[in-house]
Amino acid sequence: MKxxxxxxxxxxxCLAVSLLSCLFVPxxxxxxxxxQSGRKPQQxxxxxxxxxxxxxxxxxxxxxVPLSAYDxxxxxxxxxxxxxxxxxxxxxxxxxxxxxxEPANIVLMLDLNNELGTFKNGTxxxxxxxxxxxxxxxxxxxxxxxxxxxxQIVARPATREFADNxxxxxxxxxxxxxxxxxxxxxxxxxxxxxxxxALRALQAKYRIGLKGRYYDAxxxxxxxxxxxxxxxRIVILISDGLDSASKTNRQQAINALARAQATLxxxxxxxxxxxxxxxxxxxxxxxxxAGIDLLGNARKRIEELQRYQRLLEGAAIQLRDLAExxxxxxxxxxxxxxxxxxxxxxxxxxxxxxxxxxITETRPSLDNTRAIxxxxxxxxxxxxxxxxxxxxx
Length: 393
Hints:
Elements: H1 2-37, E1 60-70, E2 85-89, E3 92-94, E4 96-100, E5 104-111, H2 130-138, H3 158-169, E6 175-181, E7 185-192, H4 195-205, H5 214-226, E8 232-239, H6 250-259, E9 263-268, H7 270-286, H8 296-325, E10 329-331, H9 336-341, H10 343-352, E11 354-361, E12 369-376, E13 382-385, E14 388-390
Parallel strand pairs: 5-6, 5-8, 8-9, 9-10
Antiparallel strand pairs: 1-11, 1-13, 2-3, 2-12, 4-11, 6-7, 12-14
């Protein structure tokens, strides 16, 4: 009996230990679980913490466009400020960073093709006054170089006189290059700020031709402007807008001008030539014998002139749209005198033109251009700028 009682304390002790284990294990497991859940997961290199929101990055750039401003009386405004305008890009407002005057890079582009005659040289005698006709008739006994003849003998053809007048009106702060086109496209004068140098180049290299490589010349003008990294980019063009020999097509030329962000001031021949061609048509018909239909060369000449008149009308519409789209100006002088004196107005417009800069977002797009609209925010103010700008390929 004693031996049995001696074993009981051991059994009781084991039971006590087992009981304590059962009681403490449920409490120990939650403690372990809590310790594991509080441990931060290891962050991989370059990975944002799970608790932080991703950062959105918006890239912006500055876009510069030309701007002309006029008051209620149509006079050029010289005190324009950023608060005076509102810029919309694809219908959304954009902040204006500055408005200021900058030197201009100007390509003067001369149309020297005479495919259908010398209509661009000067006024035909039959469009002059009666007094001028009588004076011309009295000259017939004089040497030929002193006679008025069918066309007035002038020291310079109209396009040359236009070019000379323009060069003399430009600011010395501006840079000028001159391109002429007819049977070929020629760089008459590379970039210069020396007006006298440009006039000498015109005198030495001015050449009239038959065909018209209009689109090739536009493309070269755009390429010349892209050489200039600062300042405004301007093309001054005197042209009938017709092409008969270019390797470049119209869309390629327009795209080149868009990439160069060029502003075009265009003087069109349509109004002047319309009158001259009408006189030529009347003359051909008047020389036909009475009662006999026009035949041969006479009929062919009439068809050529009538076709040229129709083409001029369509080309004038395209020239006007090109000038307005790029923020420039379209002029269609009614006569030779106003045509050769139009550089005064063009030079004044260019001298008063501003550079406007606004901030835009850079974002992926399938379009190469973005539409913009510049609106006046000042009473009595009218503004003119380009309708779009080039984003890129």
